[in-house]
Fold each of these.
Amino acid sequence: MVRLDRCKDRFLGFFVYSTVRSATIKSHRVGIAYRLAQFILLIYIIGWELIYKKGYQAFDNVSSSVTTKVKGQGFVPINSSIDKSMDKKDPSYYQKLFKFDTNKTYRLMDTADYVVPPNEYNSIFIMSNFIETTQTQGRCDEEVTKPKAKCLIDEDCLILGDATNSWNGIPTGRCINSSTTPGVNVCEVKAWCPTEHEDSRNEDHLIRNVLNYTIFIKNDVEFKRFNKKQRNILPFITNKYISRCNYHRTVDPYCPVFQVDYIMTIAEPDDEQKYRMLYKVV
């Protein structure tokens, strides 16, 4: 019987309506304080949370990976030297140095030869000029441009301090004649000999066809929180398309293959300066 009465009370209570009693306070001080609190709360929500902190937006850290691949064939002349009759003041002087001459014999250089190192952080190094030195371990004269390498007597090669940190080898304490600069004495070192000299660049070391190299760039971006993935390889791009296209901002803006010549032209429109950059390995 008690259980039946409880069920009856709950059923009838379902149809009962109740409200909170409110009181009206006629006070200017209380009213001003109440409205001021509302105004401050409104400013905080709109100004701070929504506008400044952009609370209506959701954020996520991006996960990205970039893959690059350089392709192209470089050519280096064999047993050839610079034509001394060419005028260095000629605006096309450096361009002529990289000109492919069918009368010369060339050796082929591929990606493994001119991309040094193979992996590099946030950059790509493409070799366009190099110093080739056949070396063996022994004793030879230090490069004249090294700090404190020049000497007059043997004692000058004994107390050198930290100057030898940039040297090519270990000083032996002897002062000998320089093999590259007549009339100048330098300290002898035990190292890989002969040492490399920056002024030994010549036409033998310039790599032709550098401007025709291509750089393939693939960029994958993911927002894990929103399960959203994007990449610069669009759905319509196929391997056949990639093998034939070259990026151009107006003609082909979606191609992920960039020609070195196009990149350098944007960076330096002047042809003379562009070839100077290749010659100086910048």
Note: The first strand starts at residue 63 and ends at 71.
Amino acid sequence: MKVKNFIAHVRKAESIDEGESDILYLKDWHYTREFPQCKAYETPPYFASDWLNEFWDSHSHGECSDADDYRFVYIGPKGSWTPFHADVFRSYSWSANVCGRKKWILFAPGYEQQLVDKFGQLPFDLRLVNFDISTAEKCFEVIQESGEIIFVPSGWHHQVFNIEDTASINHNWFNGCNVDICWNYLKQRLKEVEKEISEHRQMEDWNKHCQLILKADSGMDFIDFFNLLSLIASNRMKQLSNCKLHLSKENLMILQNCSTELIQSENECRSSVCNIDELDAHVHHLELDISDNVTGLEKSSLREEMDNDVGSRKYLFDTGYGCVLFDLLRVKYFLENEFLSADLHKLGDDDRFVDTPDDLISKISDIIDTVFTCEM
């Protein structure tokens, strides 16, 4: 169906009773990919650190046949809805209502299990399940108004209902704060694939076939994931190589500790935060901790820049120097702990690799040592 035909359908939808199966919903329209010249909107700065779309954007240049993105437009009449699900790769998502209103029902990670049937399956439509949202554990109902943006954390199952004719912009993404969740999801999906075809384990290139099925099922295989990390590291190293700041080793250690604290705090936040008040308190506590750490920086051009800024939190969370360092350290940590011992060449053709884990770790270490030179 063409978009113009769908719009004609929407205009007629007022005569269709809410909930009927013939109400259509335009979902996952790759608007920005199809119309790159049309700058209809900018990603809000809170969601700008987007490794997933940065990776796929790099595939849109040249002659890559697998170019993709995870930026979508949704348009649906009153009564249209999406089934109960968690987002692709267990990524973050944000959704901005251009117009209309939506009702969201969300379950914190793990608490969707209270809805499984006797076969261990989750429901497709929550309206068909006998449960009381007011008593369900870690379940939230949210009404999203026109002009509002909602953020959905990793792994939160949800169902969405359009309670008015609605158009929205939706992105899926991940970055250094939730990359481990996405990686663990891919590993779990691979285990499920291997289990399904385990009787053919003796076949030639069985591991490669498992990866092929994984990519068809989830949109990415292990080599794609490694190449994504490699691209992020390469882009951040280019940014660092242009940096004119020279910090002492002591200052570098302080910034590294700040990045480590951010990662640890993010992990704690996932398991402890269950409502907006707790999230606000958590962010405020994190801001104070980072501010205390950063005050230990000795006087330097960096310190003077931070003194003139609105504060350390802006410095670390903007698309600036601290975020570049955070991304590099996160990739390095991930490579050392997840990929260094893996025999990736059993998983695909050598020409798909843009680097090796050992070489990439070495390059990251070299650029950090080069940029952060000791002050005399």
Note: The first helix runs from residue 3 to 12.
Amino acid sequence: MERNNYVIDNVELDETDAKPSKHNISGLDQETVKNEYQEVQGKPQSGKVSDTNVYPMSSTPRGMAMIINNGAFQPESGFNPRHGSDVDVQKLANLFQYLGFAVFVKQDLAQAEIMESIDDFKQQFEETIVDMCIFCIMSHGSGGNLVDIQGYEIDVEEEILKKFYNTQCPALQGKPKLFLLQYCRGGELDLGVEVPSEFRDALPVDKLKLQRISKLPAVTDFLIANSTVPGFVSNRNMKYGTWFFQCLVEVFKENAKHMDIRDMFDQITRVLNEKESNDNNRRKQTFEVTSRGFYKKLYFNPYEVVDEQYENDDEEYKNDDDTVSDKQQKNKKGFRKRVMEAWKALVN
């Protein structure tokens, strides 16, 4: 297993998701986030025109999202707690709820429990028809692999991603699948490089023309975002969460209503490029996005939530009585309230 020295700034409390050194590091107390399933419903956003080059995003809920966070590791694993990971969980859950997703949260799992959770998650798509799948897993990394709370390595490609291939998950055939992977993929620190003040973006590649085919390949509609590139550590702030998810939540929050997902990833690249640690090394980080047959535009089309409705809605919910006889109307209010609360949590 790889061993990496922590580089911590006293102000920003940045560390890495790699196996720790023997240095004694104090961190913040972690809050326990309960496993939960929360469904969000509301009115679809208008204005998006259906197109064969755009993934449909109109189901209720829009999709299902699973968040697995390994933050507390068993002593024999040799890994320190991932202080700050609870912040990532809360912010991502709020974001996904705002985007209209049903959210599953799991905490501190061993390998067998991770595999069981994935199987249970896949079963939900057999029972409920939705337009998208998001799978997010956060942990330490070793040898280029993700580890469970006992320190056992998990091959992300073989043990996680393949479970969602068209051959193994028919319910998601032709539907977008987003994977957010947060773990160190090596022990090397990205110390950056001095560059001239002027920087030119690379020109975009030509668009591919896809011919009509009679059957699907085994792997399609995959978009995989790794928090770092092979061989490098992934940085995490013990107060504000991982660098990657700090940037992702901020960009998605501001742009999900009108911007394609890959354009948002371009924005995340720009924001992440600006981050660096406050130690003498001025540590940097680059994330990686891989597309596997993901050939359409994807607009999240979140439920419409506008600031002007907050005051009226808040007053309405204050008067909402648990004894309301019209159960259907009450449930409708409850769904709207959860969407509103998720948005408020994002903007605060």
Note: The CA atoms of residues 278 and 343 lie 31 Å apart.
Amino acid sequence: MSNPQHVHRPTGSKQINKNHKGGKHFTKGAIKKKNQGKVAPEVHVGVKDTSASASKVNRRNHAKQVRSNRKDAVVMAKRVGHDGLSPKVVGIIGIGEGISLDDATQAILDACEIRTRHSATSATVVLPAWKQRVTLIRAPEDLNGILDLCKVADVLLCVVSGQGLSARGERVVSSIKAQGLPTVIGVMQGLKNITNAKLQKQARKDLAQEFETRFADDTRAVALDGPQDVTQLIRFMANTRLRAVPWRDARPYVLADRVSFAPTDAANPQSAGTLAVSGYLRGGRPLSVNGLVHIPDFGDFQLKQVDEMSDPNPLNVRRDSSRSRKASDASQMDLVPETEGPAVTVDRIVLPNPAVQETLDSENVPDPMAGEQTWPTEDELADADERMAKIQGQKRKKKVPKGFSAYQAAWIPEDEEDGDGEDDDEDDEDASEVCSVYVFGWCVHVCVRVR
């Protein structure tokens, strides 16, 4: 008997592989037959869309730049002022005995490039190393002139000798602090006359402490006895933090560099005319041509026009050798006449609008009909008196126990029925009885029950 042939029968867990596919490499004929005349669309192979990520990076970069610009603007405002376009005004005053403001001013001018000399006591200089312009003004001797200078000064140089503040200097300092104190830098003059090095060092230390006590803790003090001291003083003037004066930053103002007056009647110089004032516009607010301007000691006036001019003292200006001058060529300040700066051109002229221009009327004209009031007649007054007497007569009376004051009676509610209160008080005197007494601090509240 022969054995049957063995046949393998796979179970349900047997792995079954997929059939081999011929691949997607079709021939041109097969592709044409499959498409049946259809044209295949063009496929563009591009990069990944990164617009969303790029936009986020740009927003972050923009926010960073805005923060940086704001920080730089704050630093520049503290150093060169709010606008950064006008020269920094530096006033030089003396608050001690045995000092010379002329020597102090001339020492600063010798170390700078004089651009424009406005008068015998003021000049505009350029500080190329710090990219700034400074207008130096020497204060007059009288107190009112010093206070006027402090109104417009951004930095105040207080010159004092080794002897300290004088009686007049203390009065000047008190007046300046009452008006509004700008940034102060102490200048010590004449310390080189102290031969003893130990005493000179102690005098320098005492004067520095004096400035910190009278002005502020961050007030800087520097000696002015040599070229190195002058360079340090100029650096302090350029880099010091400017202190804000609120009443000055709340309005625009102009420090006049040049002033000219053209009378209406040439034959009569005392007649009315037009005053032309040239200078930098400063302050925290813009100037309106339709508003009024105030000239100290003269009053308020209307503006005829405002000319926007080019900068007469630019930082960088090309000049020929004939106009170039060195600081060493400058002679004494009170003997040098006013010199012309670079050519100035008028860029724009702004005229006021008569319809909205502010008038010079400083007082309101009273209008007799504005406060009109009809006075009541005699009949109306009589009727009012009758109504008032009737109201007072109809006032309800309350039953008050005997011995109660007016304040205690005010706590008792009014009786609903009208009657003579005095008779009721006498009749019901025995029927009154005190139920309870409440004490609230100093106030005594008495509750009474009336039978």
Note: The radius of gyration is 46 Å.
